[in-house]
Amino acid sequence: MKSLKLEIPLTSYATEAELPLDEQTLVEQARQATYKSYAPYSNFHVGAALLLEDGTVFTASNQENAAFPSGSCAERSAVFYVGANYPEKKIKAIAVLARPGTGDVFQAVSPCGNCRQSLLEYEHRQKQPIRLLMLQPKGGIIAMDSIADLLPVKFDADDLFGK
Fold this sequence. Notes:
Elements (H helix, E strand, L loop, with lengths): L10 E3 L7 H13 L10 E9 L4 E5 L12 H12 L5 E10 L12 H14 L4 E5 L5 E4 L12 H4 L3
Parallel strand pairs: 4-5
Antiparallel strand pairs: 1-6, 2-3, 2-4, 5-6
């Protein structure tokens, strides 16, 4: 038997101001998207902002439904919209922020398992990594250069067809 250890590469920024300007804007737009969330059941408001390779930004928020799991997460709403309407454009980065309750206090959150798998599919589809930006638990930003880093033992289309 051999023991293996996985390492996940990420970059920690003490403040948002350390990010490149386009990523600072992306984080702010994800923050603003939380205010468009429909979360009457969980009261957990999530916003996502996608940056396309041409500089266009699309935002989305979580949309809940009394018939769980009929709602949609912010990340999947954003990536599915872009995939359906702009399939030829590549996603450069995504920022994800969460705001519990009704105030203006934000907390660290990472994409759920369904969102990770959906984002991974788009990364695979475009054959180019998608950078992920999230708040750190004690402030600042964590950046990952690829969604695949969230799923180091991933399942994608290559597994389906034995490539």
